[in-house]
Amino acid sequence: NDTDECNVCSGDNSSCADCAGTPNGDLIEDIFGICGGDNTIQGAIDYFESGSEEDGHVLINVPSGTYHESIHLNISWATLSCDGDCVIDARGIDQRAVIIDNAINTTIEGFTIHGDATMYAGVVITPSCLTVNVSNNTIFGMGLSNPSNDSPLAYGILTYGNDQYDMPTGLCLCDNEIFGILGSG
Question: Which residues in the chain land under pLDDT 70?
């Protein structure tokens, strides 16, 4: 009721502010509730990575949908959880769908991760990770030989270390369905 027929604020402008509080602004909340967000999983990760998490643990509930992106999950004390039917489809975007890097006590759960002959891994967990949980995901279709070494394999979930002292520890790779991989689950 504070706008005229051209949708221009009148009066004190309080009811015509965007999500950032700017009068007549055009920012809206994305599907993750982030003011001015871009509706991507990576955008939500980056938002919380910048120190916006509350109570020390970040919970990112991903709404149902297909997300055409590769994600880099590098937040500690975080849970990335599908709230419905979520597909991460990085085909034609990257050779990996999810990279978990430098993370402590981090979880990814409930996603369908779709690959093809251009991808060598669905989920990659790097040596610097501690207590990572990859659970209840469906991962399939990776068919590219690993380009970083001589291995002819593709992977559903790839974990690796640099040596016996520099490797991910405390991993739970639980209740995932992995199939159709040219190499190793």
Answer: 1-15, 50-55
pLDDT the model gives residue 49: 73
* Contact (Cβ atoms closer than 8 angstroms) between residue 67 and residue 95: no
Whole-number Cα distances in Å, 42 to 7, 60, 70, 98, 179: 33, 11, 8, 10, 25
pLDDT for residue 7: 52
3-state secondary structure 25-44: CCCCECCCCCECCCCCHHHH
How confident is the model at residue 51, as a pLDDT? 47
Q: Give the DSSP per-residue string, the chain.
A: --B-TT--B-TT-GGGB-TT--BT----B-TTS-BT--S-HHHHHHHIIIII-STT-EEEEEEEEEE-S-EEE--SSEEEEEEEEEEEE-TTT-SEEEEE-S-EEEEEEEEEEE--TT-SEEEEE-TT-EEEEEES-EEE------TTSS---EEEEEE--SBTTBS-BS-EEES-EEES-SEE-
pLDDT tens, 80-119? Answer: 999 999 999 999 999 999 999 999 999 999 999 999 999 9
**Identity of the residue numbered 88:** I
| Phi then psi dihedrals of residue 127, to 5 deg | -60, -25
